[in-house]
Amino acid sequence: FKILIMNSIFKRIGFFSCIAFCFMNILCEDMDDAVDDVDALCDEVTIINQGIYDNLVSDGFQFTAVTITDDCLNVTIAASGCGGDTWEMKLVDSGAVAESLPEQRYLKFQLINKEICLAFVGQTVSFDLKPLQVEGSNKIVLNIEGLQESVTYSY
């Protein structure tokens, strides 16, 4: 009788151990995803595509500030809208690199604004600049259409 009880206890311990191990494995996978999210410091990725660049159409906006923090281009714009929560914003590079010192790239900013309100609201979004880096260089000039001054990105 003792053998049957001990056998039942060992089966239950084994079962609960397997469940605990599976639960811990799931938690570790979630922790790995969290580390990946920390690596993504910018809100959006800069798109490099000549076709998109050439055909880009944007709704009206005004640049109010453009700064660089680490590898992120922070763009603050203002436009008519209800709050900007539904705005879609993209930064598109032409793919061309002007061979100057430092090298230069040409970009366009796109706002897709479906909001119909009379308010004038602002919003900031950041774009990852790492895809724009030029091998063998540590600095590049960014010429963004509609922005009066170019921006220098050092990396």
What labels describe this entry?
alpha/beta, 4-stranded mixed sheet, 28% helix
What topology does this entry show?
Elements: H1 2-39, E1 44-45, E2 47-48, H2 50-55, E3 62-69, E4 72-80, E5 88-98, E6 103-112, E7 120-128, E8 139-144, E9 151-154
Offer a concise description of the structure.
With 155 residues, this protein is α/β, with parallel strands linked by helices.
Characterization of the model:
There is one protein chain. With 155 residues, the protein is an alpha/beta fold. Helix content is 28%, strand content 39%. It is built from 2 helices and 9 strands; from the N terminus they run H-E-E-H-E-E-E-E-E-E-E. The strands form 2 sheets. The chain has a 5-stranded mixed β-sheet. Strands 1-7-4-3 form a 4-stranded mixed β-sheet, with no helix packed on it. A hairpin with a 6-residue loop joins strand 8 and strand 9 (151-154). The protein is elongated. The termini are far apart. The model is unreliable at 26-39 (pLDDT under 50).
